[in-house]
Amino acid sequence: MSIVIEIKTHIAKALKDLFDVEVAEQSLTINTTKPEFEGDYTLVMFSFIKELKKSPEDLGAAIGKALETTNPEIFTAHNTIKGFLNLTIADTYWLSFLEKNYANQQFGSSPANGKKVMVEYSSPNTNKPIHLGHLRNNFLGWSVAQMLKESGYETIKSCIVNDRGIHICKSMIAWQQFADGATPQSTQTKGDHFVGEYYVRFNDEYKKQVEELIAGGMTKEVAEKEASIMKGTQQMLLDWEAGKPEVIELWKKMNGWVYEGFDVTYKRIGSDFAKMYYESDTYLLGKTFVEEGLKQGIFFKKEDGSVWIDLTEDGLDEKLVLRKDGTSVYITQDLGLAQEKYEDFKYDQSLYVIADEQNYHMKVLKLILQKFKKPYADGIFHLSYGMVELPSGRMKSREGTVVDADEMIEEMVNVAKNKTEELGKVKDFSAEELNELYDIIALGALKFFLLRVDPKKRMIFNPEESIDFHGFTGPFVQYTHARIKSILRKESEVRSQESEARSLLKLEKDLIMLLEQYPATIEQAVTEHNPSVIAIYVFNVAKLFNSFYAEHSVMKAESDEKKQLRLHIAGMTANVIASGMGLLGIKVPERM
RNA sequence: GACCCGGUAGCUCAGCUGAAUAGAGCAAUUGCCUUCUAAGCAAUAGGUCAUUGGUUUGAAUCCAAUCCGGGUCACCA
Prior knowledge:
This protein has 592 residues and is an alpha/beta fold. The chain has helices spanning 3-19, 46-52, 56-70, 91-101, 132-150, 166-178, 184-187, 191-215, 220-226, 228-242, 245-269, 279-282, 287-296, 330-345, 359-371, 405-423, 431-451, 474-490, 506-516, 518-528, 532-551, 560-583, and strands at 29-32, 41-44, 75-81, 84-89, 116-120, 154-161, 275-278, 299-301, 307-310, 318-322, 349-355, 380-385, 388-390, 393-394, 459-460. It folds into four domains: 3-89, Gyrase A, domain 2 (2-Layer Sandwich), CATH 3.30.1360.70; 116-286 and 330-394, Rossmann fold, CATH 3.40.50.620; 287-327, no CATH class; 422-583, Isoleucyl-tRNA Synthetase, Domain 1, CATH 1.10.730.
């Protein structure tokens, strides 16, 4: 039980004993005491001062005294200022907390709760390489899944690959027309980048053709439909759907190249999936929904044969679920996929990590499933995140303004390498160890950068300014971990007997108090589906430890008890940092 | 036009289920390496929390209106 909950319980009991009032524990406000006042935690009393018809001073004194009488092992002092009751928690309470947990590698994780949750994230297109926006998606999805796992859920990470459709045909036709048989091997290009080049090539050519047609007197609208490369693409899509062998063969070949490229990147960034779904397998799945929906009167058919759902009563619009030519649209596929996923895994919850431009779409998806009274409908949750933008605005793959993921990582590795060499602290590392360290630091910086802000908010990345390694960053936290490990290596004999220390200095206590908040922090992060809560927390732990480190020596502590105590504090800090960073998918080095 | 999200220090962001004098990091200025790793610590400076009104003992936080920015409302994905 966390100290805050414990405090609330005792206060609720004190209020009952003293004044015979029932106060819901959740309604009590407990804050950490501001540094300018005496105390550790503070009860904000305003909400019930009036009701009890007491002066704040009397009320504070009464509650404070009661707490100290009934639980002297927790509460040692109190003071009341205005409506605030500041409580001091016994040093011995913190010491016993530390002794109980300093060596516990599992501190903060919860036992299995029997719930199963699917996390769909990443969801790439097979016509272009991964960019910075995809990285935010990947890191978020992975991290949220990891947080859920640590707090007791069985998690299944999945991915839906958008491997078919008109956009895929665009890169296919461009390759057919312009590649002259070139391959990733022949051009020494990573497969996904190779295919991505033809997607760009398509758009260049298309634009050119449209301009020519317009110059020849066509309107823009007609020209966009009449351009020969676009017509060819549409024919190719029809051929694909008809299963024309040479189109299928080309499709398989080019997708194969992309997957080879993706594999490399995914492996490097640590994304993994228990189950891959491919749109080419699932795109027809939703059609049974359409039939069923028509039968049940959830959907209706217009004269032209298209099928719709009327959501105006729910404050939304009419939404198309089947085209007049009988082909399915995006939402139809998603209905089918949701069903498929449920049949595969019988999940309790299903998270979709998808950008916020699809908020409306996801709302509609859930609503339709609810109208079908699907048992899994309520468990669907759209983890909506904001786009990563450049100072100039949104990234556009067609305009070539995307920040490529592979290039980004490479750049970060170089910065890590230069910085490490400059500082010269790990000169004895082998080439292999060095490369591993560069990767840990580079990805640590990148992941932390993308995860430290609230997922819901869009964020701006300026490519002109490389990602920092100082301050509120991954490397700062990693560095703190390495510092602690350095102490622990030198003091290899971390004696396991209890520390005999009986009192705490301010920074010692502050650190233990902060470490105690780790489980509650995870809980909050999970509830909010928000890894930035962990990033901020872990940064605060590192920052506080560095202050402590500058102020007090561990190895040359004033006494043997103090040394012992500080070794335990340092050890636990390292554990919590490693664990918290682990929730973000970030490794921490032993040395750096 | 309708709906959704946002606007906090020069920049990037916390704080938003109301609570004490609004916090970090970067950038700026100034100190601190005869060593538990300076990728660090300490200090200074930096704010009309978009604007106006309201609710409240108390508002950056809740409500309303306005302004600004973004997104969505496709027989695109």
